[in-house]
Amino acid sequence: MGVFGKGKSGGAMNVIRCDQENYLVWKWTPLGQDPNTTSRENSIRYGSSLRVKDGEVAVFVYKQKDGTVQDFIEGPFDDTIKTANFPVLASIVGMAFGGNSPFQAEVYFINLQGNNQVKFGVPFFDVFDPRLPDHGVPVAVRGTITFNLTDYRSFIKLNRLVNFDLNQFRNQVQAAVARSVKGIVINVPDEAGIPLVQMERKIDAINERVELKLGKRLSEDFGVNLKAVDIEAIDVDKNSKYYQELRQLTATNTGRTMNAQTDVNIQNMRDMQALNRQNMEETMRIQREEAQRAQRLQTETNFIGTHALDQQAEVLKTGMASLGTMGTMGGGLGGGGMNPAGMMAGMAMGGALGQQMSGMMNQMGQNMQMGMQQPPAMPQSMYFVNINNQQAGPFTVQQLTQMATSGQISAQNYVWKQGMPQWVHAGQVTELQSIFSPAMPPMPEQ
Description:
Layout: E1 3-6, E2 12-16, E3 25-28, E4 44-45, E5 49-52, E6 56-64, E7 67-74, E8 77-80, H1 87-92, E9 102-103, E10 106-111, E11 116-128, E12 136-148, H2 152-158, H3 166-185, H4 188-192, H5 203-222, E13 225-236, H6 241-328, H7 340-373, E14 383-387, E15 390-395, H8 397-405, E16 414-416, E17 424-425
Parallel strand pairs: 2-5
Antiparallel strand pairs: 1-2, 3-10, 4-9, 5-8, 6-7, 6-10, 11-12, 12-13, 14-15, 14-16, 16-17
Helix pairs in contact: 3-5, 6-7
């Protein structure tokens, strides 16, 4: 520490600063004085220089009859000590000596940027699995916490700055961390639902629980900010008798669960296949009935046309038979002569009936030809599709083509139709392979 000069009333003109590199709390003492002394020879004068780096805070502690009070100077700061910067000092030190009188104060520097690490280890303690609540298995935990200071006012309220011992503080934090970690880990199987035999593999999840609960404890009890918890290992005594029982119990339950799940899956598959068969049979029945109905309608249409032809033929026959009668109608007094007018009328009517007969025959022929050229539609293939593990359908090939085009299905979707022994990928069905063909690339620009 530098010395500027000697004051009139005793006390040195000092440069008050901290040159330590790694520290949490550091107490400044005048040059040549022993640490932790509070004699008047250690008094400080106005005009002494104070230098506080960025990320530091200097605390001036004044002992009064009603307790201690503090001035806080946050860095960066490089100036002389004067009442403008020290409001508490201005109120407790008289100005009768024109700023030359010394004052009693202890000066502490607090590091707000440095990270502090404390290793912790929790020796073996019994952890109980809910499946064997009366049998504890030994478990040990070890790791490291990282913390720093952010709220220095809270830290000062909770910790004694006078004669501050960093090692002692670390030991206190370490003990508190060990107690908290033990309390959290011992309840993990019950509260977090993590079986004891899986705790070593669930170290990240346990680490998060410890970090969440431990941060509040360190803030409230020590005034420090927890930055990270790193559990390095959770050691479970695998030679423990109860651990072996838990392993066996877990293996047995896992095997039963897998077998039961397999049986359920097989039964579900069988039920789905039976349901698919029923649905396909019903679909095919409906299609057959629709085809038969269409064929009956066609037959009935043809029959109606034939019947109408027969009826009109009878009408024509009657008309032709009337021609002769019309030829003799009104022919002489005896009724035996020819009637030219009647004959002409009969011929005209015969021609009209002939044309009508010809048109009706042509129309009937066309109807019969159309009926022969358009047979009933054949039943289409109907497929069921597995979409997101849900059965959908049935769908025609045309519907599946539209679904493939829109991206609803791909060649990897399972399909099944009546007659297929099992579900297969759609891309393996010959009838469906064309709907998944890659699209033609666009023409290159000229």
